[in-house]
Amino acid sequence: MSTTPQTNLGELPFPPDPIKPTEAAKLLGKHLATIYRWIDDGTLPHWVEGKRQRVVSRRDVLAMRRRGQAKRPRADKPAKTSQWEEEEQERRTRETLERWGSAKYLR
Known about the structure:
This protein is mainly alpha-helical. It has two domains: 1-72, Multidrug-efflux Transporter Regulator, Chain: A, Domain 2, CATH 1.10.1660; 74-107. It has four helices and three strands, in the order βααββαα. Strands 1-3-2 form a three-stranded antiparallel β-sheet.
C-alpha cells in the first residue's frame, strides 16, 4: 500500500477507513464518474492502494455528505424548472408535433 495520496495536499498517512470510489458514490448518491472527477480535480483526496486501485477515506466522504456538498436528490419531489426551460420545452414540443403533422394536439 502506498502511504502518499495522489493529490496536491502534500503527504498524508493512508486512511484507517479506505473505501472504493463505488462505495463513495453510493454513500453520496452520485454517479461514479462524479466521484472520479472530484478525485481528479482534488475535491476528494485519494490514495493509491496496490498498483492502481484508488481509494478515498470514508471519513472524508461522510464529511462531504454532512456539509451538504453532495445531496441526494429526492425522487418524490420534481426538480424545479425555470420559466425559460418550460418555454423552451414547449417550443420544442410544438416544433416536433408540427413536423410530424400532429398539430391537432397543440393547445
